[in-house]
Amino acid sequence: MKRLAILLLLASPGFHACQGGVPVEEAVASISEADYLRKISIIADDSMMGRANLSQELVETAEWIAAEFLRYGLKPGGDDGTYLQHYTIRQVRPDFQASSVQVTGGAPMELGRDLNFGRGGGGGTVTGGVVLLTGTPGPDQPFPAEQVRGKHVVLIPAPAGAQTGRRGMRFPPGLTQAEPASLITVDRSPDSVWAAAVTRTREQAQNLTPWASASGMPSFTIREGSLASLLAPLGIQPAGLAARAGGEMVLTEVPGLEIAVTTAMQEVGSFDQPNTVGILEGSDPTLKAEYIVFSAHMDHVGVGRPNEAGDSIRNGADDDGSGTIAVVELAEAFALLKDRPERSIIFLAVSGEESGLWGSRFFAENPPVPLGQIVADLNADMISRNATDSIVVIGKEHSDLGATMNRVSQAHPELNLTASDDIWPEQNFYSRSDHYNFAQRGVPVLFFFCGTHEDYHQPSDEVENMDISKATRTTQLLFYLGLEVGNAPARPQWNPESYAQIATLAGGGQ
């Protein structure tokens, strides 16, 4: 949606600033299928080009949401009295000529010939010994962090064609948290494919977040033949290690071998990414200093290869246009209320989810109110597909928000919507959307999710494939939950065991 079209929409009938106030029943009724459909048809239109990160169309989506928040009478929660909170993504690429690799105790290697840059890291030198990792930890096998900390970890894949039950190389749980010097994956590509990958690395920009230089861990790929040449003088055969790659995890330290990789980065440019933040002040003189967050991500994955119908725009109607419009509808409904909740509410549309939960992390680290005063995050990410009479609510077991959710759901049978527990725990969806950046910092959360489907990240994730009724009823359920939490005498409380496991960045008690 181009800027002129947005301005025309803002001038159209039906947009309003809230005056007076209405009872709960009328506020809920404002969350209608017709209104929801009209709004989702704006942000999931082809003209938005899939709302890719670092795109003008995503900026226009954020501005459209900001205009909605303005007309609902919300207070700005962004930068300099606006509704937009910005964070900068630097775009860089490795400078092969200014970078280098030095090997002590083994055969020499060259960048581009033997090693290629992967993702992560913001430049500088990483020096360490070498550990070869095969397999994955068994269910009762602890990860030996002390053996990999500060060392280059080379992940040895199973032999080509081996039946290991695994789809490619995956980092074992606990590996990245153990702070290795780098992660190095083995590449078996033929010469032409390797050369093309190196060329892409030389030419394509990488995105660096504001926190990349502080916590980014570099990764590299190494040619299988180059690894064999590096290790042969030391009496280690990678082929023998690969044979056990399908089993339990084994770490093999390489004595006397040290690698120092210096990465120099070329600045390509930068881009300001937007979050959109609106605040509705609570009605209680004391509790209005506490905040509930309704969140969703407005970004999607942009334009890709055309499908059989020739459509290349991945509109992200369900992912996560559905949750974004839920937040917009909730903002309107709560702003309409005559009797507002006692606690304040933050309505948050973030960017960067598809690129690594960028926007929610930046917001959680730079909130417009003290983080300790945010009592809950209710996150909606894909709520308009699959079973029409249920929505999965992930995270109920981790705080008393779960019991509150169940009570609210049972109190509203007219919604014909069951708030189900997590039915895919093995897929770890709890850590895969924006609520997780709040949970890690000690904020109780719930994640509303319909599950993936055949249109996930495809051009076919279109408005016409959405269940608008389900999306609307889920939004109404969120409204009732927000009322309950907003008016409760006490703030939500964590399950202590869950808090100890999840709230790793909380920096103290609840």
Notes on the protein architecture:
With about 500 residues, the chain is an alpha/beta fold. It is built from 15 helices and 17 strands. The protein has helices at about 5-10, 25-30, 35-45, 55-70, 145-150, 190-205, 210-215, 225-230, 240, 315-335, 360-365, 400-410, 435-440, 470-485, 495-500, and strands spanning about 75, 85-95, 100-105, 115, 125-135, 150-155, 180-185, 205-210, 220-225, 250-265, 265-280, 290-295, 345-350, 375-380, 390-395, 420, 445-450. Strands 1, 2, 8, 11, 12, 13, 14, 15, 16 and 17 form a 10-stranded mixed sheet that branches. It has a 7-stranded mixed sheet with strand order 3-10-5-6-7-9-4. Strand 5, helix 5 and strand 6 (about 150-155) form a beta-alpha-beta unit. Helix 3 crosses helix 10, helix 10 (about 315-335) crosses helix 14 and helix 12 (about 400-410) crosses helix 14 (about 470-485). It is elongated, with a radius of gyration of 25 Å. The relative contact order is 0.15.
